[in-house]
Amino acid sequence: MTISQLLAVDLVLSVLAAGAWIAAVWKTVSLSSDGRTTKTGNIHLAILFVGVAVVATAARYALLPALVAGSWWFASERTTINLPLTAIPAAWAAMAGVPYLLRRRNTGSQPAEEDRERGGRSREWAVLTMVAAAASSVASLALTFILGPFPAPWSIALLLLMVAGTVLLARLALLTPGRGVKAGHTGTRGASPAGRRPTAAAAVAGLMACTALGSGVFAWLGSRSADGTVISAAVGHHNGGTATTVTDPTPVTSLLGDPPADAVVRHYELTARVEQVTLPSGQATEAWTFGSLPGPALEAQLGEVMEVVLKNRDVTAGVTLHWHGYDVPNAMDGVAGATQDAVMPGQSMTYRFTAAQAGTYWYHTHQDSAEGVRKGLYGTFVVHHPSLPRAETDIVVAGHDLSGLGLLGSSDRVSGHSAVPGSMVRARLINTDSLPQRYLVEGTAFKAVAVDGTDVNQPEEVNGKLVRLGAGGRVDIAFIMPDAPVTVRSDAAASAAVVVSPSRSGVAEPGIPEKAPAGAFATTPVLDLLEYGKPLVGPSGGSTGAAAGSRRITREEVVVLDRQFRFVDGIPRYAFTVNGAAYPLVPSMDVAEGDTVKVTVVNRTAEPHPMHPHGHHVQVLSRNGVAPSGSPLVLDTVDVLPGEVWELLLHADNPGIWMDHCHNLDHAAEGMMMLLKYEGVSSPFVHGGHSHNRPE
Question: What is the pLDDT averaged over residues 207-233?
Answer without folding.
Answer: 81
